[in-house]
User: Which sequence fits this backbone?
């Protein structure tokens, strides 16, 4: 349980870490270079932004939207989490599902981002052939205290460049971790049931009191 | 007499645990269908999860929150480091049992360094000096040698585990140096502090998890099982090949430390890795060293 928690927090950072934006990426930027650039940018921003550290959800969302989202393939992430049920969903349902899932993840990450302080990220050498279109970028977050947290990304090549579609914190893949929750919600109330659950969850998160700055 | 005490404490503890477990099992029989093959005891596990959660909500979490609010952070770090140092000793044993010579030596170097310069482990000099912490336990050692994890198992008070790791637990308990601390009163106070400190260090993460999960039980289970499996194989799940002992290439890049001579097989590619990270780590240690010097 503690593992998970630690991890989640880290994952968040990781994700966070994963994104940086504005300067148009060089067209053939290597996947690990991309993740590295995003991570560094997000970490730096989070460390230097007082309102992010205070847990200002609007600022965090902004950061996530500008620096991370352009490099994440949410549609793919959601379809993997939904597994075999994805094909049964109408395009409209698919669209709603991935947008709600996205919101949920943003809320989660915003919590994690506000906790970034003295962590540093180290990248491991990429094990991939130049022709690969699907690679795993591996890194670890060095904590001020305790064991480094492994943080890996699955990245695949799309027509619009490399996109992250799964994140691994402490050995647990995000998609895999959501898979059975998705499956049990779907078995209870179908795709619409899952969408409703996500909506309710997001609503509750939107209304919760802002996290206090430490 | 202390011997007696020790036994009666453990005995009582385990009896309480057993009683709780039975109670939870009975109350769990009512419902829940287990539909995950990795979790055939879902009914029992969920009940125990709920029980643990209640204990956490009413006792542990408030204590941890108070601890975190009241104590200066250097005290909290000291407490965490102190117990972390004790567990490094057991990590060393397990790394060596798994034939991971380099990591085992690193653990020994950590304990040596932190126990002496770090004043009985209160200060962790080894991490900033680039000797990483490992946290190995006996369950991982069993897993390393091919023992399957078996079903998921939620333990009373201890939280998520698996059948394999539960079987390994007595060894971990026996391998914990604090278990032999005399007098027993000090041991008990220490253990309580350790638990509260651990919980306090996880407060932010748990709050976060509450936000992330649709069903916290499933979320924790599925995350835990993956993380645990990955921990057993040190992040390299393509197990089959034996040459992965030092696959955590990052560990080997710190040639600049004055460690005990490490002849252990450093994977050739590993040495080439991480120039930048080493710099990071090194600069970190300089800072720490700079801050630490005046105190000596």
Assistant:
């Amino acid at each position: 349980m503690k593992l998970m928690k630690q991890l989640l927090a880290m994952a968040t950072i990781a994700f966070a870490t994963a994104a940086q934006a504005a300067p148009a990426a060089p067209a053939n930027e290597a996947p690990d270079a991309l993740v590295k650039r995003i991570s560094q940018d997000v970490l730096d921003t989070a460390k230097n932004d007082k309102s992010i550290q205070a847990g200002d959800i609007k600022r965090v969302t902004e950061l996530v939207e500008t620096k991370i989202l352009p490099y994440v393939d949410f549609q793919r992430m959601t379809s993997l989490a939904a597994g075999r049920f994805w094909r049964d969903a109408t395009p409209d349902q698919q669209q709603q599902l991935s947008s709600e899932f996205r919101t949920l993840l943003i809320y989660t990450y915003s919590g994690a981002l506000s906790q970034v302080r003295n962590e540093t990220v180290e990248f491991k050498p990429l094990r991939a052939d130049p022709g690969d279109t699907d690679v795993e970028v591996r890194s670890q977050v060095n904590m001020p205290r305790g064991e480094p947290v492994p943080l890996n990304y699955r990245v695949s090549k799309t027509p619009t460049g490399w996109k992250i579609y799964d994140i691994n914190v402490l050995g647990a893949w995000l998609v895999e971790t959501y898979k059975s929750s998705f499956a049990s919600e779907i078995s209870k109330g179908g795709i619409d049931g899952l969408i409703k659950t996500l909506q309710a969850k997001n609503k509750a998160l939107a209304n919760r009191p802002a996290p206090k700055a430490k | 007499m202390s011997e007696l005490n020790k036994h009666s404490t453990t005995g009582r503890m385990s009896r309480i645990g057993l009683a709780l477990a039975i109670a939870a099992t009975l109350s769990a029989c009512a419902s829940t269908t287990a539909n995950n093959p990795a979790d055939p005891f879902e009914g029992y596990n969920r009940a125990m999860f709920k029980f643990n959660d209640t204990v956490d909500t009413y006792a542990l979490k408030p204590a941890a929150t108070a601890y975190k609010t009241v104590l200066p952070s250097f005290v909290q770090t000291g407490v965490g480091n102190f117990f972390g140092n004790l567990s490094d000793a057991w990590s060393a044993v397990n790394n060596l049992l798994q034939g991971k010579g380099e990591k085992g030596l690193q653990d020994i170097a950590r304990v040596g360094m932190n126990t002496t310069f770090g004043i009985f482990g209160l200060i962790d000099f080894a991490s900033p000096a680039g000797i990483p912490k490992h946290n190995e336990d006996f369950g991982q050692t069993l897993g390393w040698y091919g023992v399957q994890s078996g079903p998921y198992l939620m333990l009373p008070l201890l939280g998520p585990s698996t059948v394999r790791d539960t079987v390994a637990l007595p060894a971990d308990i026996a391998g914990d140096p604090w278990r032999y601390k005399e007098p027993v009163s000090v041991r008990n106070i220490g253990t309580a502090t350790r638990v509260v400190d651990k919980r306090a260090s996880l407060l932010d993460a748990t709050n976060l998890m509450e936000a992330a999960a649709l069903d916290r039980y499933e979320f924790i289970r599925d995350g835990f099982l993956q993380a645990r499996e990955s921990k057993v194989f040190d992040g390299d799940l393509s197990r089959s090949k034996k040459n992965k002992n030092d696959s955590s290439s990052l560990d080997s890049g710190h040639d600049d430390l004055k460690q005990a001579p490490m002849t252990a097989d450093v994977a050739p590619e590993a040495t080439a890795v991480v120039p930048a990270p080493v710099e990071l780590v090194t600069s970190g240690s300089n800072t720490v060293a700079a801050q630490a010097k005046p105190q000596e």
Notes: The first helix of chain A runs from residue 2 to 17. Chain A touches chain B through 49 residues (CB under 8 Å). The beta strands of chain A are 120-123, 134-142, 149-158, 161-169, 172-173. Helices of chain A lie at 2-17, 31-48, 50-53, 57-68, 74-82, 91-113, 174-207.
